[in-house]
Every structure is written in structure tokens, then in C-alpha cells.
Design a protein that fits this description.
By secondary structure, the protein is an alpha/beta fold. Helix content is 26%, strand content 24%. It has 3 helices and 5 strands. The chain has a 5-stranded parallel sheet, with helices on both faces. α2 runs parallel beside α3. It is globular and about 40 Å long. The protein starts with 10 loop residues before the first strand and ends in a 15-residue tail after the last strand. This is SIP-like Rossmann fold domain-containing protein.
């Protein structure tokens, strides 16, 4: 992360699928202008890709899965790669914010639970949260 003047804003990870777009847009709208991070959106076709307005240091990556791909697979891989770099196991940092939708994919739900242990979750901020109860 490039240094800048003043206290750096939060590092954010927002991730979801096409069904989560409204929640993602609502979350993005609450981010401070100095936020830094990544938004991942997994969709079934390139026709679903559209611009999302974000703070200038928050980047959006659209993950378009093929017809034979299992929903959530691309998103989970992206989230795992991002968190391996930015949220290593064993380190908690309340300047990091994580929200992961795509609750229909059990692997994503399990990953989100692990992220909550190392970040300030969207729930702690009063933001919408995917229902992942009962998913292992």
C-alpha cells in the first residue's frame, strides 16, 4: 500500500455475486474517500458487468465464470488470495473491513467466518450482512 499524508483510511475487501450488487453499492457508498482495497464481483456472464463508483484507491474486479463453473468458486479463490496478502492468519486489525456476500456458496460462507475473526466486520459497522448461519 502506498503511503500518503495523514492516517491511512481503512483497508477494505468487499466481495459478492450478481445478487449482492445492491448491497455492494450500499457498502461502497459508505466508504471514506481514503479507503484502500478491493471489490470482487462474480457474475455468470459478461453482460452483467457494469461500472461501480468507488473511492479512487478501491478497485473493482469482475469475475466472469464459465457456463460449467460452480458459482462462488472464482470469488472464493479471489478472496483467499487477497486475504493471504492483506489479512494474514493470526493478525487482527480493526482498520480492515471485510464483507462477503454470495452466501449460497458454502465455501464462501466458511471463509467469511474466518475473516470476521481478523477484521472489523460490516456487522460491527452497522452495515448489511449476508446470512451465513448454519453453513460450514
Amino acid at each position: 500500500m502506498r503511503a500518503h499524508r495523514g492516517r491511512p483510511g481503512p483497508t477494505v475487501l468487499l466481495a459478492g455475486d450478481g445478487a449482492d450488487l445492491r448491497d455492494l453499492e450500499a457498502l461502497i457508498a459508505t466508504l471514506p474517500v481514503d479507503a484502500y482495497g478491493q471489490v470482487y464481483v462474480e457474475v455468470g456472464s459478461a453482460d452483467e458487468v457494469r461500472p461501480l463508483a468507488t473511492p479512487r484507491r478501491v478497485h473493482v474486479t469482475w469475475l466472469v465464470r464459465g457456463a460449467d463453473a460452480v458459482a462462488g468458486t472464482l470469488l472464493c479463490s479471489a478472496v483467499e488470495a487477497w486475504t493471504a496478502e492483506w489479512m494474514p492468519d493470526g493478525h487482527r486489525d480493526d482498520r480492515r473491513i471485510a464483507w462477503v456476500g454470495c452466501a449460497a456458496a458454502p465455501r464462501i460462507a466458511a471463509r467469511y467466518r474466518r475473516l470476521q475473526e481478523r477484521s472489523m466486520s460490516a456487522a460491527a459497522m452497522g452495515l448489511p450482512v449476508a446470512d451465513v448461519d448454519g453453513v460450514e
